[in-house]
Design goal:
Blueprint: H1 3-9, H2 15-22, E1 30-31, E2 37-38, H3 46-51, E3 53-59, H4 69-82, E4 87-91, H5 96-100, E5 108-109, E6 112-115, H6 117-121, H7 127-147, E7 164-166, E8 176-178, E9 189-191, E10 193-195, H8 200-207, H9 211-219, E11 222-225, E12 231-233, H10 240-246, E13 254-258, E14 263-266, H11 281-289, E15 293-297, H12 302-317, E16 321-328, H13 330-336, H14 349-367, E17 373-378, H15 385-398, E18 401-405, H16 407-410, H17 416-428, H18 443-455, E19 459-462, H19 464-475, E20 506-515, E21 520-525, E22 544-545, E23 551-552
Parallel strand pairs: 3-15, 3-16, 4-14, 4-15, 7-10, 16-17, 17-18, 19-20
Antiparallel strand pairs: 1-2, 2-13, 5-6, 6-13, 8-9, 11-12, 13-14, 20-21, 22-23
Helix pairs in contact: 4-17, 7-8, 7-10, 9-10, 13-14, 14-15
């Protein structure tokens, strides 16, 4: 059965029941139909947040299809609930780019899903649309200010890096010219589109503490310079108030349910290869305010989403994770051991053994944050017992807890062993979380710490453009911001072809972008696409809808 077929078999519970199970009065929530609700910001409780056990689900370096962190997160939360631990899973919202592209949706899979699957994977509660509109409003205000003769800040169009966004994969929009059509249609200039998940406003929403902090961060967005080299921010354009108005509902977390009828929060969706790759601070705190355990995930491998989760989100929000579940698949290890994508379903112990150094490096990285790790093998039907035993022997040799998680096939029942290992790790209380670096260090030192300690690089090289950007950052007084490196998810290095555990490589920083509103700096490495393209045969080709409104082909 497909994920959609499995989802349609489930008799959904009214969201009012899920709200009550979560621990709130349904009267204080905002209903979005029968099965979705917005949670009020007033339901946050910092005292309870401090008592909840936060568990991060991460992964080894993935294959193009991903290794199932969302499925693992949902399955683990179901397993913990089966053990009698009140648990909420807190996830990111899916982007329509992957939904219609190659990777598919982000609601889990098999018996470990969040529901209603179709709604969540499509328009959901409109959060992405609100972020898109707020972002594009600022773009319109910028171009209007350039055009204006009476209300102009004398912006230099050549210094403006703020693009427009759209939540679809469309490579034709990466670079565009706006303002064509004569003097009444604006000032011609080159710009482009990013996908909505890459918007700084998405990052801002996911790091904001409250509505007031959201407005302040929006005002801090760096726009560019005037012709006389004066720095201009969104607040100088008086844009932050209207942008906040557009986001007044989007800032509230969304409550839905798992297949087993347990509460699940889904909110925000920044990508991890170009932003922090985790759900919102507000959503995580909301889950922790009403749960003994809170399970969350960070995008792509530990080198991307998890490092940013620890060094940016946890530092910013004062969160202390108690354990990390490292999602591992036999197919990914074989891929990093040299097997081709076409043969990953075939038994190949030799390639699997050659891929183990990738797993080893991610475990070393977890240890750098003084947090216990648990290996979770995301079981696929094509995995052999011999292959599973290779990973089990590796785990025993290195003293790492390991569980075989059959969450896709069995849901929470397939995660009970993993859930017990998580409880055991929390009970031992060995986590003494420590970030990798201090924010007030020099920018280059912070970049090199991540590149050398997490990626395993030998050296960091900076282009002339990157060096100029570093001088700009110093001139603007933004050197104390944390680092959010944009890097390929396919490799520990900045070269997607270097699989496994590459060594003695050089990371090249092409430029350093300023995300002053989000509160971090973005060193760009490699060829990172902020507006992905569709594959030759996108997933959209298999989607359709009947006269009765029945959707098929969504996954």
């Amino acid at each position: 059965m497909t994920d959609l077929q499995i989802a349609k078999e489930v008799a959904l519970r009214p969201i009012t029941e899920i709200v009550a199970k979560f621990g709130l009065d349904p009267e204080v929530t905002e209903m979005y139909g029968k099965f979705k609700a917005k949670l009020p910001l007033g339901a946050l409780d910092q005292d309870k947040v401090a008592q909840s056990k936060l568990i991060l689900v991460s992964a080894i370096s993935p294959t193009p299809a991903g290794e199932g962190k969302t499925t693992m997160s949902i399955g683990l939360s179901e397993g913990l609930n089966l053990l009698g631990k009140k648990t909420t899973v807190v996830l990111r919202e899916p982007s329509l780019g992957p939904v219609f592209g190659i990777k598919g949706g982000a609601t889990g899979g098999g018996r470990s899903q969040v529901l209603p699957m179709e709604d969540i994977n499509l328009h959901f509660t409109g959060d992405f649309a609100a972020i898109e509109k707020a972002h594009n409003l600022l773009a319109a205000i910028i171009d209007n200010n350039i055009q204006s003769k009476t209300n102009s800040l004398k912006l230099d169009p050549r210094t403006i890096t703020w693009k427009r966004v759209m939540d679809l994969n469309d490579r034709a929009l990466r670079r565009v010219i706006v303002g064509l059509g004569g003097t009444t249609s604006g000032v011609p200039r080159e710009t482009g589109f990013d996908i909505t998940a890459a918007s700084e406003i998405m990052a801002i929403l996911c790091l904001a503490e409250n509505l007031q902090d959201l407005k302040k961060r929006l005002g801090n967005i760096f726009v560019g310079y005037t012709h006389d080299k004066t720095a201009i921010y969104a607040r100088d354009l008086k844009a932050e108030g209207a942008m906040t108005v557009l986001l007044k509902d989007a800032i509230k977390p969304n409550l839905v349910q798992t297949i087993a009828g347990n509460p699940a929060i889904i909110h925000g969706g920044p990508f991890a290869n170009i932003a922090q790759g985790t759900n919102s601070v507000i959503a995580t705190r909301m889950g922790m305010s009403h749960s003994e355990y809170t399970v969350t995930e960070a995008g792509f491998g530990f080198d991307l989403g998890a490092e940013k989760f620890f060094d940016i989100k946890c530092q910013s929000a004062g969160l202390t994770p108690r354990a990390v579940v490292l999602t591992t698949t036999i197919r990914a290890l074989k891929y990093h051991g040299g097997a081709s994508l076409k043969t990953l379903t075939e038994p190949n112990v030799e390639a699997l053994r050659k891929g183990l150094p990738n797993l080893e490096k991610h475990l070393e990285n977890i240890a750098k944050f003084h947090t216990p790790a648990i290996i979770a093998i995301n079981k696929f039907l094509t995995d052999t017992d011999e292959e599973v035993q290779v990973i089990a022997q590796f785990a025993r040799k290195n003293g790492i807890a390991l569980a075989l998680a059959e969450v896709w096939e069995k849901g929470g029942e397939g995660a009970k062993e993993l859930a017990q290992l998580v409880v055991d790790a929390v009970d031992k209380n060995t986590a003494t979380f420590k970030p990798l670096y201090e924010w007030n260090l020099p920018v280059t030192e912070k970049i090199e710490t991540i590149a050398k300690e997490i990626y395993g690089a030998k050296h960091v090289d900076y282009t002339a453009k990157a060096k100029a950007d570093l001088r700009t950052i110093a001139d603007l007084g933004l050197e104390a911001l944390p680092i959010c490196i944009a890097k390929t998810q396919k490799s520990l290095s900045d070269n997607p072809k270097l699989l496994g555990r590459p060594k003695d490589f050089i990371i090249t920083v092409r430029e350093v972008e300023i995300a002053a509103g989000a509160g971090f700096l973005i060193p760009i490495t490699g060829n990172i696409m902020r507006m992905p393209g569709l594959p030759a045969h996108p997933a959209s080709e298999g989607m359709d809808i009947s006269e009765e409104g029945e959707i098929v082909g969504l996954f």
